[in-house]
Amino acid sequence: MKDKSSFTPLHGGDLVAASEHYGIPLDQWLDLSTGMNPEPYPIGDIPSSVFTELPYLKPEFLSAAASYYGSDAFVAVSGSQSAIQALPTLLPTLPVLLPRIGYQEHSKSWQATHATTFYPSLTIDAQSLFIETALVENTSQHLVVINPNNPTGVMIAPEVLLDWASRLTNGGCLIVDEAFMDLTPELSLLNRALPENIIVLRSFGKFFGLAGLRLGFVFASQNIRAQLEQALGLWQVNGPAQFIASKALTDAEWQRSAVDRIAQMHVHTRKMLVPVFQEFKSEVLNDSGLFMSWLMDTSKAMILADRLAQQGILIRRVQCSDDQSVLRFGLLSLSQNILL
Q1: Domains of the chain: which residue ranges?
Q2: Measured in whole angstroms, how far is the alpha carbon of residue 226 from the centre of its chain?
Q3: What is the C-alpha to C-alpha distance for residues 218 and 225, in angstroms, rounded to an integer?
Q4: Is 122 helix (H, G, I), strand (E, B) or coil?
Q5: CATH number belonging to the domain at 4-31+253-330, selected among 1.20.1580.10, 3.90.1150.10, 3.30.450.40, 3.30.70.260
Q6: Are 80 and 202 in contact (CB under 8 A)?
Q7: Of the chain's two ends, which shows fewer C-beta atoms within 10 Å, N or C?
Q8: Contact between residue 138 and residue 169 where contact means Cβ atoms under 8 Å apart
Q9: Spatial contact of 57 and 35, defined as CB atoms under 8 Å apart
Q10: CA-CA distance, 249 to 19, in Å (whole number)?
Q11: What percent of the chain has pLDDT over 70?
Q12: Would you list the DSSP string of 44-81?
């Protein structure tokens, strides 16, 4: 018999694995494990031509992205994941500083070719102190920052990031993953003039709720963009993704409405979850944006995650140590309710 409490999917959103593990049909799951907008952009009708033509990058797509992000110095990619995997093979072979807790595909990609050091990322003070000390000891390295951190919510001010980048030498780069930055665009590095050694990753799917499109953007110097385009090859962004993104990225009215709706959904979700977290005596790490996270004893986190999964509710558990885990919850839409 399977030990259901041992189930830990590699990524959020793996409902197939959860369904097989718990014996609950796919259509009976509520997925709170991804941090995606649960009320996605309405895609509407899609012309057949976007399926039949080769997906060369359309001018309207490039213009929409440049307008939305405030910069045209980007490479459009099939999800930022492809860039995360490619960048360590393109940049100088230097040591790299990585968040101990964060999107783990960063560390998986860097560890294959670079010496890695992990900094604490549960709190802004611990993270900043460690990085400051590391840069005093060695400026010849790369630095990866997830901003805001997923799942801890730690946010580093752009002025601090620019200062850190200015201290990197010998080809060292600052890679900033802004996958969850859409709700706080004023804090994005894309509002600043970027030096040659900063690379910013943006994800389309989270705010717009369309993860299946597989669309992301890499903002970087012309040299790094050229290397990335060479490494990834033609047709990184499919035709339907370009068509839908061209509309979504220019639909300012929907974007404003989505920001308001997400704030309402966050309040709604918190009301549903607070009683159970009071029962489990957890510590709030992040209580804003597209997800909320709590820190608790690993044993309690496993019990709670399993309890929810047995009711068909999938969440994300991130183990920090033998003793502590983070539970991350995505948002309920305003039409969804759960009884815990």
Answers
A1: 4-31+253-330, 49-250
A2: 24
A3: 8
A4: coil
A5: 3.90.1150.10
A6: yes
A7: N
A8: no
A9: no
A10: 34
A11: 96
A12: ----THHHHS--PPPHHHHHHHHHHHT---EEEESSHH
Cα dist from 77 to 57, 163, 229, 238, 299, whole Å = 11, 28, 9, 10, 39
| The pLDDT of residue 340 | 65
Domains 4-31+253-330 and 49-250 share a fold: no
Residue pair 244/230 in contact (Cβ under 8 Å)? The answer is no
- 83 by Cβ neighbours in 10 Å (0-12 / 13-18 / 19+) ranks as buried
Per DSSP, the residues of 227-270 read HHHHHH-S--S-HHHHHHHHHHTT-HHHHHHHHHHHHHHHHHHH
Quick one: pLDDT band at residue 135, thresholds 50, 70, 90? very high
CB 21 within 8 A of CB 4: yes
The sheet carrying 198-203 orders its strands as 74-77, 216-219, 198-203, 174-177, 142-146, 96-99, 116-119
Distance of CA 27 to the CA centre of its chain: 25
**Helix H or strand E encompassing 225:** helix 222-232
- Identify the CA nearest to 15 among candidates 309, 340, 331: 309
Beta partners for residue 223, in sequence order: none
Residues whose CB is less than 8 angstroms from the CB of residue 65 and which lie 6 or more positions away in sequence, other chains included: 72, 74, 76, 217, 245, 249
DSSP, collapsed to helix, strand or coil, labels residue 271 as: helix
Angle 81-38-318 from CA coordinates, rounded to 5°: 55
Q: What angle do CA 276, 211, 271 make, to 5 degrees?
A: 20
What is the C-alpha to C-alpha distance for residues 53 and 318, in angstroms, rounded to an integer? 42
pLDDT digits (tens, 9 = 90+) for 248-286: 999 999 999 999 999 999 999 999 888 887 888 788 999
The owner of tokens 């929810």 is 308
